[in-house]
Structures are given as structure tokens and as C-alpha cells.
Amino acid sequence: MNRIDVTEKIIATKVSRGLKWAEVAAKVGLSKEWVTSACLGQMALTQDQAAIVGDIFDLTEVERRWLTVVPYKGSVSASIPADPLIYRFQELISIYGPTLKELIHEEFGDGIMSAIDFKMDLSREADPNGDRVKITMSGKFLPYKTY
Q1: Residue 136 falls within a domain, yes or no?
Q2: Residues 102-122: pLDDT tens digits?
Q3: Phi and psi for 45 in degrees, rounded to 5?
Q4: Pair 24, 55 in one domain
Q5: Host domain of residue 135
Q6: Secondary structure class of 44 (helix, strand, coil)
């Protein structure tokens, strides 16, 4: 057994029970974005959080322990993703990444946006031409230090 096995069990149970990530997140008491990431193996849960997730998905004690292990983050395949939605995010960064970099440096100086001290919100935005996906990301600015 490994973390991938636990993730696959969580997804299978979610599908078979018709659960929504927002419902799971509400029980954990954190955002749907963070809890989904944790359930997909990209964040480590505390023991208390793992107990709640374990109860929701009927995980064994060993499977619950896997939820508390610090993951190898960004472990999604480095190859070009076949999934069209994930590919579009990669495409978005390929096209707008340099623009975002320039604008962040112009506004804040030489540094990066943290993916650790980070918040994200995903919501539906009604539009007469077809609903839109609205993603808001907020990461702490971390300036490069001189030494």
C-alpha cells in the first residue's frame, strides 16, 4: 500500500457515494480547494483531519496514517498532460507566465509568489454567453534576499 492507493480509494468511494468535495471540506472545516488537494495526495492532513476524512471514506488506520505523511508535492507527471483541462492550465502558464512574472516584478520587486502561504478559491461566474470558471489565487510575496 502507498499514498496513491489511498487516493484511488478516496476517489472511488467519492464516486460510488456521489459525494461532493465541498461536502467533504465542510466536515473537515477547511476550504474545498485545500481539502481536495489533500485528498488527492498533495497536502498532509493532521491526525484529526485524517480521522474525519477516514470516517467519510471508510479508511483503515493504515490508510489514515498515509494521509498524514508529507507528500512529494507536484508529483503530477512532468510530461505534457493528456487531460484537456490540466493541459489548458499548462497552456495558460506557458502563454501568460512571462506576463505574470513581469507584472509581479513590476508591482512587488524581485521575488516569487508563495505556493506555501497560499489561498485559492474556485467558483462559477454566471455569464449570458455561458458560465465562466473563476479562480482566485492569493500567495504571499517572498522577495529574494541579498547577502
Answers
A1: yes
A2: 999 999 999 999 999 999 999
A3: -90, 155
A4: yes
A5: 84-143
A6: coil
Nine-digit cell at 132? 465562466
Q: Which residues contact 13 (CB under 8 A, 6 or more apart)?
A: 19, 57, 58
What Rg do the C-alpha atoms of the chain give, in angstroms? 18
- Dihedral pair phi/psi, residue 48, rounded to 5°: -65, -45
User: pTM for this structure?
Assistant: 0.78
Residue range 65-89: average pLDDT? 84
Residue labelled with grid coordinates 459525494: 19
Q: Which residues are catalytic?
A: 88, 91, 114
Q: Which of 67, 92, 123 is the last residue of a domain?
A: 67
Same-domain pairing of 51 and 91:
no
- Give domain status of residue 129, yes or no: yes
Question: pLDDT, tens digit, for every residue of 23-73?
Answer: 999 999 999 999 999 999 989 999 999 999 999 999 999 999 999 999 887
Grid cell digits, residue 85: 483541462
Contact yes or no for 106/123 (Cβ under 8 A): no
CA 39, 43, 44 angle in degrees (round to 5)? 95
